[in-house]
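worker-3 :: picked HUTU hydratase
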Amino acid sequence: LTVLNAGRRYLKAEDLSGKVFVTSGLGGMSGAQAKAAVIAGCVGIIAEVDEAALLKRHKQGWLMEISNNLDHCIARLRYARKNKIALSLGYHGNVVDLWERLVYELDATGELLVDLGSDQTSCHNPFSGGYYPVQLGFEEGKQLLSTDPGKFRTLVQESLKRHVAAINRLADKGMFFWDYGNAFLLEAQRAGADVEKKGANKTEFRYPSYVQHIMG
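worker-3 :: tokens ->
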């Protein structure tokens, strides 16, 4: 319902075939995103750093395909988008790399390859394993978290700034991004990322919340 209503509200579209939804997280509640994309008829690309979560969703049939190769992900995205095929593709890697690759494609080809975007990393708990920084692989990140949590925190905040910078670039070209209630925008703001709504107070963000703006 969230994906469908985001399409209705922001894309003015009842039919999401050929539309692309990019997000992250395949564990816990966020694991439903892949299934939701296919039910809605769109192309869902969901990034996940933990291979165990990816394999679980794939085995359950909630995720149609898995890849750790961004070239392959972009090729599959383009094909499914062009042919209006419902697809859920799990990218085994950091969502920041995925967002930055979409910015690269925009700069290189002028093509905006994503229509809807969100995030379901566990940003309510970003410094204890809920969000892994793009600068490190998953296992490296886990190691640093146990040996130097202060350094891990710094890298998470740097990663959040890169994360938001890529989203902002794509949103400026017409992608619609929303907050999924996971404290992503709050933690990005605390990290110094550009998420504040211009001309508003500091508690308002430039992107809407799914509760008030989409489900409401």
